[in-house]
């Protein structure tokens, strides 16, 4: 003979959240076991499978104490519960606690007085030893805690207790952005992330040391006082409940982190797209500039056979200069492609830096004309003694030549000085090479992006030279930087390389 089964009270409502069940739903439940549970001869009906799942979870932890929560729609059916994914370790901890604790050891306290809710929340925060996790339901919930001293209490806790970590998830407005930035800057152990509007809930959650949880229902978000804004709260020391909230927090924390990463990537892609469009426009202009005189002057030379030798030499000189410029532009473009594809290969050998700098200076002297009243100086008292580095001779020459060419471009008169220096840093012998000019200096607006692609101080050029130089020096294990001279005349570019000892 089958045991008699009766319905729980209010069999027209969901046993967990209190939602009224339609007649269609009730008829379906009578024939489907997926949304009903029978406990001690009582049949409980549910609006959804999630309600049935959560009912079983709470009932297993709290037993008969759970009855007081039944029908509290805003708390129990909150969408946060859909994000609960405890880890295997957490599940083992829950099972261990449930097997070792009696029903009387587990506390489930319903607090209906807003003042008592606030007091308990402050006490829990003060008692925290390791960790405080907070999910604010709305931006106003955050502001209310600012007004009643909750945020200040977090500041005090983090400054008086070593090893304490506080993480906060909150919806955002301009005031919260400012406060969050201030907290991050002043207190390194407070982390704040901003929840998207779609992730907001009706419940503010506080978890302390993964042992205590306080879930506070939001009653009226338009109110500014604790008494009017919040409803009842539930406090628990049950491992399963606390871990559930921790799982919710960690899930949201990672979700917000992913959103931030996607946003940053999107912004980066937009910036890259903008830069590539600018590059195409600049490259088209820069490549066309040397090509036009090469083609035009070559046609003149071809058509005028009787031209004077001196005039021919002048035109050929212009053609050669523009051909070299075209070669430099195309090599820079190819180098950028190799750098981005991580295929910039170095053919390293022992290189005497004195010999390399002397040759580079001779080569760039051909760039000087009547418009430049410049003196090139290599200032090193040890030039007679070899100074060896292990480097790709061609690439290192490319760097020095580029730095010298830039110095000439921005210096109409004065001195361009190359200085070498040996320095020991962090037990490593370094070679420093400085190229100092007396030109116009570096505009402060371009200083932060000076070594990035397409950054240029000139109306001419694609802004690739310094980017290529930086990549070459870093591939050698060195660094490169720039600064304006203290006397406000010109600038100095410096790079470092590991130095080989000859001792």
Descriptive tags:
Helix Hairpins; alpha+beta; 503 residues; 4 domains; seven-stranded mixed beta sheet; five-stranded mixed beta sheet; elongated; 17 strands; Endonuclease, Chain A
Structural summary, described in words:
The chain has 503 residues and is an alpha+beta fold. The chain folds into four domains: 1-68, no CATH class; 69-260, Endonuclease Chain A (Endonuclease, Chain A); 280-340, Orthogonal Bundle (Helix Hairpins), CATH 1.10.287; 348-498, Heat Shock Protein 90. It has 14 helices and 17 strands. The strands form four sheets. A seven-stranded mixed beta sheet has the order 4-10-9-8-5-6-7, with helices on both faces. It is elongated and about 115 Å long.
């Amino acid at each position: 003979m089958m045991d008699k089964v009766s319905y729980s009270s209010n069999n027209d409502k969901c046993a967990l959240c209190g939602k009224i069940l339609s007649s269609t739903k009730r008829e379906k439940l009578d024939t489907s076991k997926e949304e009903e549970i029978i406990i001690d001869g009582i049949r409980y009906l549910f609006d959804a499978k999630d309600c049935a799942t959560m009912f079983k979870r709470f009932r297993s932890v709290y037993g008969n104490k759970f009855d007081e929560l039944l029908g509290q729609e805003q708390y129990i059916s909150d969408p946060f519960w859909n994000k609960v994914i405890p880890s295997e370790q957490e599940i083992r901890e829950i099972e261990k606690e449930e097997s070792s604790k009696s029903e009387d050891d587990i506390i489930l306290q319903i607090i209906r007085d807003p003042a008592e809710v606030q007091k308990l929340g402050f006490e829990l925060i003060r008692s925290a030893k390791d960790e405080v996790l907070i999910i604010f339901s709305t931006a106003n919930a955050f502001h209310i805690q600012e007004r009643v001293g909750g945020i200040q209490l977090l500041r005090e806790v983090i400054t008086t207790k070593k090893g304490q970590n506080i993480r906060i998830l909150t919806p955002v407005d301009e005031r919260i952005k400012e406060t969050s930035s201030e907290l991050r800057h002043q207190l390194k152990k407070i982390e704040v992330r901003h929840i998207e509007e779609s992730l907001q809930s009706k419940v503010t959650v506080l978890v302390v040391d993964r042992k205590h949880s306080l879930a506070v229902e939001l009653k009226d978000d338009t109110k500014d006082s604790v008494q009017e804004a919040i409803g009842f709260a539930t406090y628990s020391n049950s491992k399963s409940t606390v871990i559930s909230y921790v799982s919710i927090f960690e899930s949201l924390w990672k979700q917000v982190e992913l959103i931030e990463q996607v946003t940053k990537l999107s912004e980066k892609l937009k910036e890259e797209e903008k830069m590539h469009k600018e590059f195409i426009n600049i490259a088209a202009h820069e490549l066309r500039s040397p090509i036009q005189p090469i083609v035009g002057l070559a046609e003149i030379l071809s058509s005028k056979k009787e031209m004077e030798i001196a005039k021919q030499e002048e035109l050929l000189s212009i053609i050669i200069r523009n051909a070299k410029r075209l070669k430099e532009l195309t090599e820079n473009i190819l180098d950028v492609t190799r750098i981005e594809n991580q295929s910039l290969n170095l053919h390293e050998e022992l290189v005497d830096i004195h010999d390399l700098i002397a040759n580079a200076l001779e080569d760039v002297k051909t760039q000087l004309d009547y418009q430049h009243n410049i003196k090139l100086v290599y200032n090193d008292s040890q030039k007679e003694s070899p100074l060896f580095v292990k480097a790709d001779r061609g690439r290192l020459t490319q760097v020095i030549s580029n730095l010298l060419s830039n110095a000439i471009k921005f210096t109409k008169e004065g001195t361009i000085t190359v200085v070498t220096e040996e320095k020991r840093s962090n037990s490593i012998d370094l070679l420093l090479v400085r190229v100092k000019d007396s030109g116009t200096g570096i505009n402060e607006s371009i200083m932060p992006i000076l070594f990035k692609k397409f950054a240029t101080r000139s109306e001419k050029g694609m802004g690739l030279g310094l980017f290529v130089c930086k990549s070459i020096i870093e591939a050698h294990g060195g660094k490169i930087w720039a600064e304006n001279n203290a006397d406000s005349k010109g600038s100095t570019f410096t790079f470092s390389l590991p130095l080989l000892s000859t001792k």
